Sequence to fold (370 residues):
Amino acid sequence: MSRPIQAVVHLDALRHNLQIARQYAGDSQVYAVVKANAYGHGIERVYPAFQSADGFALLDLAEALRLRQLGWQGDILLLEGIFCLEDLFVCQQHCLSFSIHSAHQIDWLQQFQRQHPEARFHVYLKMNSGMNRLGFAPATYRDAFAQLQALEIIASITHMMHFSDADGERFGAPGIDYQQQCFEQTIAGLPGKRSLCNSAALLRHAPALHSDVMRSGIMLYGSSPDFPQHTIQDWNLKPSMSLRSEIIAVQQLKAGESIGYGSSFVAEKSMRIGVVACGYADGYQRISPSGTPVLVNSQRSQTLGRVSMDMLAVDLSHLPDADIGAEVVLWGYSSSGAILPVDEVSQAAGTVGYELMCAITARVPFVVQA
Fold:
């Protein structure tokens, strides 16, 4: 028998979450963001659930080619654009759209046009409206637009930006206000479609934003983009991944005894402890403290002590029927349908659901559930 840990990908939840994105998007297009190997789920695994999307968005060419090999013939957007001149040959061959966020990328396009004037590209011109990662500053954006518009190989230009605070407030004001005003003022009078919304902006602000292309990411994978203000239940989202294992040993602790490395947890009374086949080598966060929630046989419990490479401990004191082989859900669905949202687990570890799902390691087997 193999080690009893597995990650389950729920296709029905992915389809449901995409439909929720469509409900909020109205008449806008919805692109499924599948960067980082579909947020750790696996592009090939999620593809059957996302084929009704209007397009896909991701980072690198290798992932884009995997989508083409799966048979996707629609739009694929490279969110960070091209990384060298040679990338344009691949984009031309496989009909890939890409963002333009820096002057050197326009230089590459100009060079490419001299060599291949027959090429045609659909590009997304990115504005740095305040997040200060990628994009042209408002003062240089219109000049960049003019340079692209002058190139015959550019078939269309979509205006693009990314909100830094769509999940809450920014300096006491609604989080989207500053960047939205900057964006609107800068592109005023320029032709072209617009792409503004990530998951948080889509769920919280879509009616107030004119975004022709919605880039739906974390919400598709059953995590709330503005947790804890809103939970997945508030947004009617479903967990798309379940990390499950089993109890492989049971220990009895006396008052004053500790468990695990560093003796970080000391029992104040007699306790019954379950040892779970899951550790940081599986992708579970080592920094997760005692008290991080888990489900044991679909009932709430918590971790105790330090997470080690291959194991962690959970409290069984209130679960007398839980024994060797009992199911432990680290996040997601139990086999009987109880839910432990990944957002609650990540909050305990001081991180976000994105990181937990992306961190599942290669030694954890995946199962796809229709």
